[in-house]
Amino acid sequence: MASASPSDRDGLGADAGVDDVRVHTPIERGIAWVARYTWPPRRYALTRTLIVRLLGVVVAFAFLGILRQGLPLLGSHGLTPVATLVDRLHAAGKTFWDVPSVFMWDASDGALVAWAYVGLALSLAMIAGYANLPSMLVLWLVAGSYERVGQLWWSFGWEIQLVETLLLVAALVHPWDPRPLAARPPPVLAIVLVRWLVFRIMLGAGLIKLRGDACWRELTCLDWHFETQPIPNPLSPWMHHLPHAVHATGVAFNHVVELAAPWFVFGPRRLRLVAGTLMALFQIVLIVSGNLAFLNWLTLVPILACFDDDALLALAPARARAWVVARVTTREPSRAHRYAVIAYAVVVAIASLPVIDNLLSKHQRMNSSFDRLALVNTYGAFGSVGDVRHELVIEGTMDGDPETAHWRAYELPCKPGDPDRGLCVLGPYHRRLDWLIWFAAMEEAPSEHWILHVVWKLLDGDRGIRRLFAVDPFDGAKPRWVRIQRYVYRFARGDEPGTWVREHEAPWLLPVALDTPDLVDALRQVGLPSPTDRGE
């Protein structure tokens, strides 16, 4: 491994980067010509290492969530079994090539768990810095397999964002050498492709806000966002009670970061570094102010592509800087790697055409794929912000008469329920049932059959469903009746006890028992298994 020259003791050197190497193709010569006028030659070996490690953290939490929640949601006795979906797809003549998922071959509970362990093992290697093209392609296939059969539980925008990011990082890592710093550096075009992702993520989010709720234009959305967001965290009440002027400034900052900063990710180096810093700080603020699953952690991954090795090393202590410089290879990207990235870039360019058209459309769609592999997608978040927080509280009773019964509440791990309970810190972990019930509470009555299946499983004493709850008031026993109440929640003020103050709105689901005809019929209509259908 080559040692750093004396002139590189405090950095990798502007004239030692991969952007400055001899190029051999017209596309690379064009990129090099543009680079001379937009950013000086830089190295991205350390940048790639940080991208791989951070993405590994996100992927590890994603697969940990599958290991914990996958079977209760998607297993053979889950709320929406994958095996049932796959049977329907096969009956309709669909194959793996129509729905590219390993679960089209085997949708058993064992397969759901085994592939999650494969993903977790590879993600732990990424956290250590080790990744190459084969390992990243396996992760891309496995993550995409869950996304394509995950149904409503995988209907969030960050699921396709994760799939796309994994493939981009597969182009960034070395084709076979998994070593963090010693492997040949990535072609500059691979970095450009990652920046194209963050450009679309940020600009799509900014445009969907301008075209959406008027509160974004009136600078009032943050007056209630911290209170009504899906899963608040311990800092959310404090941020909610800040003055309106602070909230309005926050909305203005949001517009600057999402609408202006993305344009500089391809610009001159100093402006690119400023844009990257603003976007990174914005994601960190979102992380500390709420629990948006792994969305903001995942968005930090492509933002890192705005920073070259010299910018990152400038933040490191001198000893750490020297250690890194001594271990970074000075070799060029391989010719095979460059050609493979060029071919991938052509595919991305073609797949980007409908995405660009969507960004320009007045009827912009957010969080949508335009191809079955989710190669290039359109993104957006919080186009509208509710000003009232509705919550559903699931209650059960062992009493025989629901009219005079004593009702006790089930508690989900992080969804607001008991007004005195504290708020969660989830980090990148994604509580899927908590999120779906937040969405369900926006409706005035049940409109999705999955929540009726939740009720059925509670009545049946199902062990799997109890893994998704933090509090089972009956310790696994079967309640006689279950109902769902709808409340309005708001953060408690300084002179009020507890975390929340709530006001009852109305019954959302009237009391039902195992033999309630409407409940049984509703489940059978969508082919969901009930204890009676299973012969239990």
What does this structure look like?
The strands form 2 sheets. This protein has a 4-stranded antiparallel sheet with strand order 4-3-5-6. The protein has helices at 26-38, 45-74, 82-91, 109-127, 133-149, 157-172, 188-210, 214-217, 222-228, 236-240, 244-260, 269-289, 295-303, 309-313, 318-327, 335-360, 432-440, 449-460, 463-466, 517-525; strands at residues 368-369, 377-378, 389-397, 408-409, 481-491, 500-512. It has 20 helices and 6 strands. 50% of the residues lie in helices and 7% in strands. The relative contact order is 0.13. The chain has 2 domains: 45-378, no CATH class; 390-525, no CATH class.
Task: Write a concise synopsis of the structure shown.
Helix content is 50%, strand content 7%. It contains 20 helices and 6 strands.
Fold topology:
Elements: H1 26-38, H2 45-74, H3 82-91, H4 109-127, H5 133-149, H6 157-172, H7 188-210, H8 214-217, H9 222-228, H10 236-240, H11 244-260, H12 269-289, H13 295-303, H14 309-313, H15 318-327, H16 335-360, E1 368-369, E2 377-378, E3 389-397, E4 408-409, H17 432-440, H18 449-460, H19 463-466, E5 481-491, E6 500-512, H20 517-525
Antiparallel strand pairs: 1-2, 3-4, 3-5, 5-6
